Amino acid sequence: MAPTVAHADPLSPEGRALVAESQAALEAVYPPEDIFSFTAAELARPDTVFLVARTGTADGGPAAGCVALVDCGGYGEVKRLYVRPAARGTGAGRALMGALEAAAMAAGLAAVRLETGGRLAAALALYRRSGYRPRGPFGTYRAHPASLFMEKNLSPLPRRLAAGADGLPAVLALMQAAFAGHAGRIDPPSAVAAMDLAGLAAAASSGELWVLGEDGAPVAAALLTPAGGAMRIGRLAVAAGWRRRGLARKLVAVAEARARALGLPALEAQARVELEENHAALAALGFARVGAGAHPGHSRATFLTFRKPV
């Protein structure tokens, strides 16, 4: 059963036990002067959210681990990430970090930062898989031989990629993963599955390729192409773990800005007839259906066209 995560009291017997176990685990690999952790009392401050994961039974079962988010004003800091040995490999760590990031976004924080150590291999692997990247010391931290500093931007900024950019392979992988779920649902199949790097580079050269996220780790992307008196948005893709966070809306805002800059009066997007969820998503973004068309060799409509004035 998938782990569940909920807010908890770090001063409860369960909370204190988790904090104590976390401290013991750190002290097993680091001397006290190399540990920069919070006590249970410090985790009970109003600016801190303490989360506990449970796994194993329908009602959640015993605590599997914990993590805390400290609101540092503009960014959040990860504290006390810990998973009990018996719960490791159950996804409890991923669930805790996902819940922490959701709490950070709900609090309006733009990024999450953390201090960790090179000897904490499992934690480092989890942070890297979750999209955290190295950075310098922050807040009151100073450079320390035992410390590594990492950050994840929860509101990635848009960047335009050139046709020869090093990040193209990661963007192609993102698009193909996002469109893979359409297989078997649409006819004809999506051309994205057969797209190669040369095709993506050509599209970036003839139009504009915009991404959200860092080099090598894009979380959303779209191709913008002036066509038919409008700015056409194509290949809009958002990574599975980043959906429902407003990234598609952010890329549409980029398209609007580029359309205005080029003197184009509207945005245009197409969606396959079968993908009704995409029709609804476009409507929510302010698009209205204006037509339909068919791919070569098809007598029925295979796609719908939507437009949004800018």
Descriptive report:
With 310 residues, the protein is an alpha+beta fold. It folds into 2 domains: 4-153, Gcn5-related N-acetyltransferase (GNAT) (Aminopeptidase, 3-Layer(aba) Sandwich); 158-309, Aminopeptidase (3-Layer(aba) Sandwich). It has 8 helices and 14 strands. It has helices at 13-27, 40-43, 92-106, 121-129, 168-179, 197-206, 247-261, 276-284, and strands at 4-7, 48-54, 63-71, 75-83, 111-116, 133-135, 148-153, 158-161, 208-214, 217-227, 230-238, 266-272, 288-293, 303-309. The strands form 2 sheets. The chain has a 7-stranded mixed beta sheet, with helices on both faces. A 7-stranded mixed beta sheet has the order 8-9-10-11-12-14-13, sandwiched between helices. Strand 9 (208-214) and strand 10 form a beta hairpin.
Distinctive features:
seven-stranded mixed β-sheet, 8 helices, 2 domains, single chain, 29% helix, Aminopeptidase, 310 residues, alpha+beta
Topology:
Elements: E1 4-7, H1 13-27, H2 40-43, E2 48-54, E3 63-71, E4 75-83, H3 92-106, E5 111-116, H4 121-129, E6 133-135, E7 148-153, E8 158-161, H5 168-179, H6 197-206, E9 208-214, E10 217-227, E11 230-238, H7 247-261, E12 266-272, H8 276-284, E13 288-293, E14 303-309
